[in-house]
Amino acid sequence: MKKLLLCATATSCFVVLTCTAHARSAYDGSWNLAFVTQRGACDPAYNFTVNVSNGVVTHPNLLKFKGYVTKSGAVRASVTVHDKYASGLGRLSSASGRGTWSGYAGNARCSGYWTAQRN
Fold first, then answer.
1. Percent of the chain with pLDDT over 70
2. Is 113 helix (H, G, I), strand (E, B) or coil?
3. Is the separation of the CB atoms in 48 and 40 below 8 Å?
4. What's this model's pTM, rounded to 2 decimal places?
5. Residue (of 92, 76, 79, 91) closest to 42 by Cα position
6. Residue 70 predicted with pLDDT over 50
7. pLDDT tens digits, residue range 30-46?
8. Domain for residue 80, yes or no?
9. Which is nearest to 116 in space by CA: 73, 85, 78?
10. What is the CATH number of the domain that holds 64?
11. What range defines the domain where residue 37 resides?
């Protein structure tokens, strides 16, 4: 009986791990982002591409970039590059998204909005 219970437990753990490893998000893929500064002395616009995989947002060249997308499409992300920092939130749909951001570049405080388009 103990062997059967141990085998069943090990099998269920393997199944759960396999399903989790292959979990996909409805928002997975490449996204083009456009950031527009509405207040502050930051650059007027920033554009770059990110990737979403299993709901985790990444950028290949930005080491201090954190982001995630929930199952409902809510997005939260932050990035630090040298003396610049920004964080934002918003929402993605199946092909586009939008939200707000705030941050700083040196001593300048800035804020604005962002838009996203799926590639």
1. 81
2. strand
3. no
4. 0.77
5. 79
6. yes
7. 999 999 999 998 889 99
8. yes
9. 73
10. 2.40.128.120
11. 24-118
